[in-house]
Amino acid sequence: MESILKALFRGQLHPDEIIVPSHPEYRPLSRQIGAITEKWRKELSDELFLELEEYSDLCLSANSLHVEAAFIHGFKLGANMVIEVMSKREELVTHAASGVSL
C-alpha cells in the first residue's frame, strides 16, 4: 500500500468521490429523491424543470461547501485531540517514578 502522504501529494486522494453513507436511511432517501425528480420531470415543462435542476445544483454546491467545512473542522479537532493526548502522555503512566516512558 502506498503512503498516504505520497497519495495526498500526488492528488490521488478523493474521499468525497468514494464515500457512500452506510446509514440505513441513506438508500431509501436517495431512491425517494430519484422518484420525485422523475415525477417532476414528467409534470413540469422543460423550462421549469431546468430551473428546478439549477436550483438543485445550487443546493448541492452549498451542501458540498458545508460538508467540506465539517470535514476540515473534524480533522482539526481530531488532530488537536491527538496533540493533547500525546502532550500529556506522561500522565498516563501510573508509575511515572519508575522511569518508564511511552
TrEMBL record:
It holds the Pfam family DUF6809. This is DUF6809 family protein. It comes from Cohnella cellulosilytica.
